[in-house]
Amino acid sequence: MGDSSGAVLVTGGTGFLGGWCVALLLEREYEVRTTVRDLAREQAVRDAVGAAGVDPGSRLTVLAADLVSDTGWAEAVAGSRYVLHVASPFPPVQTEGSGRADRPGSGWRAARARRRPGCWCRARGDDVFDRRGPL
Prior knowledge:
By secondary structure, this protein is an alpha/beta fold. The protein has helices at residues 16-27, 42-51, 73-77, 109-113, and strands spanning 7-10, 32-36, 60-64, 80-85, 120-123, 129-130, 133-134. It has one domain (7-128): 3-Layer(aba) Sandwich (Rossmann fold). It contains four helices and seven strands. The chain has a five-stranded parallel sheet. A two-stranded antiparallel ribbon has the order 6-7.
């Protein structure tokens, strides 16, 4: 059963790992917020959750935020008790020196944005923990 004291923000809701994190958290009755680069992908997130057999009801919020920009992160983190940062800033084609992944700090925007008392962040697919243990 989920913790009603705040939502879980999952970065990268359209990705493989992010999508499964969203579905599993919703299945455990958490309120979930997730980020996508483009809100046109919101239906893809909702379809993936439905395909996993989960009805999100009103517990899923999809927000726009890109790992290569500070825009949207403060809004995405607002109201979140936990941040599960699993998004990867990889470009469609990997070439040396060209990618989103080479930009300094691109993987940590969500972690920086969540700096407020009572919000816990785990990055890169690690288990999400609070003071009581794993979710």
